[in-house]
Amino acid sequence: MWNRPRFDLKVRLTLRVAAISAACFAAISAYFLITADRAAHARIDGIAAIVAKTLELQQGKVLWAASPRPDFPNLDPVSAYVMTPGLCLAFRGTSGEMLQRFCSGAPIPEDPPPQIFTAFYHSLFDPGREAARPVILRGTKLGEAVVLVDPAVQTAEAWHEAGRLMLALAIALPLFCVLVYAALARALRPTRMIRAGLERIAANDLTARLPPFDLAELSAVRDVFNHLAESLDTALAERAELTRKLIALQDEERRHLARELHDEFGQSLAAIRALASSARQTAAQDCPSLLGECDGIARTATGMMETLRGTLFRLRPPDVEELGLVASLEGLVAGWNGRSRGETRFSIRFDGTFETLPATISANLYRIVQEALTNAAKHAGATKVSLELTMHPGEIALAIDDDGRSTDPAAKSGMGLLGMRERVAALRGRLSFEAGPAGGSALRVVIPLAAANPQVLEHAA
């Protein structure tokens, strides 16, 4: 399945804020450029109006004096007041011919604008566009006063303005991003606590609770989290209580079945064996040919009694509370080694002190090991089974490894594994059953010592 790349939330939000800020700076720069272009055109329009009015006055004086002036039009008087670098003043006659033109020199800029900016600016604003005003005297149009600015000068001025904004952006934007990142890191600091709480919940620590937060959104998450943890804790406690009752009922049924088998079936087998012995004595005197059948009946009854004895041992194990967990498990392993007759080798190792372990945990551990050995020997066909019981600070760990068939469905989904899961769940523990690294199966059980609380363990075994 394709997974999308993951990004840090602070980095993602900072990048978005930076993109929005850059867009705002771009909009501000565009606003300044548009305003500067309009101001430049308004300025040359004003100059064109002044030049036209001056030329009209000059021509009016000529008519008033009734003597033609050969120097009309004369742009020198007005140029002394309005000329700036790159500015051109001109008078265009009615025929379209420039009768006079006066331009001031444009200085060479120390930092010329880049070509890309020049092309962009020319495509948007058309610098160097002329402003023309008609020169009219007594209703007759004499020509036009024309004013324009060198495009290079106007472009350089626009680049100068835009350059200052870009410099401000280059300085302010990184600093702004750092401040935004720091603010987001501080605001999102509670998310670490939320993540730690979720990890504790995932580890079956349902006592995890989140503290109050300043932000309303995180406070809502905290309320939902705490409510969920409390609901899960209650649900698991109710489930554990029901499981404990079911296990207690199951064990009581086992004890009842063991008594019935011992009292009824066991006595019947003993009677059959006694009758077979009596029949053999009678056959030895009257009908020797029946001796083989009598011996066969006796052997069958003896075998059934041995099988019954093993069944009774599994249904009603020795009293773990009196013998202790270590002795009970050693006896269980020794019994399996004796019954397997060398076909399967069972070994067990203890690490820690288990004398003070509560009887309820000991009884459940015994049952778990009993079911695990049965699965390994009968379902998985293992030839080597190793058990290790370790006491850690705050918990007990059980590891059972075998070299059997790890893919056998009966070993993974049978009633034995289900019973083990129920017992582990009743003790608030964890169970995993997976294929071993070198083949076979690996069963891991971890039971917290907090399960030794009498209120938690009541009726567990």
Automatic annotation (TrEMBL):
GO terms for cellular component: membrane. Residues 185-237 form the HAMP domain. Its main location: membrane. Keywords: Kinase, Membrane, Phosphoprotein, Transferase, Transmembrane, Transmembrane helix, Two-component regulatory system. The chain crosses the membrane at residues 13-34, 165-185. One of its GO terms (molecular function) is phosphorelay sensor kinase activity. Gene3D superfamilies: 1.20.5.1930, 6.10.340.10, Histidine kinase-like ATPase, C-terminal domain (3.30.565.10). CDD domains: HAMP, HATPase_UhpB-NarQ-NarX-like. SUPFAM superfamilies: ATPase domain of HSP90 chaperone/DNA topoisomerase II/histidine kinase. Pfam families: HATPase_c, HisKA_3. It is found in: Membrane. This is Sensor histidine kinase. It comes from Bradyrhizobium rifense.
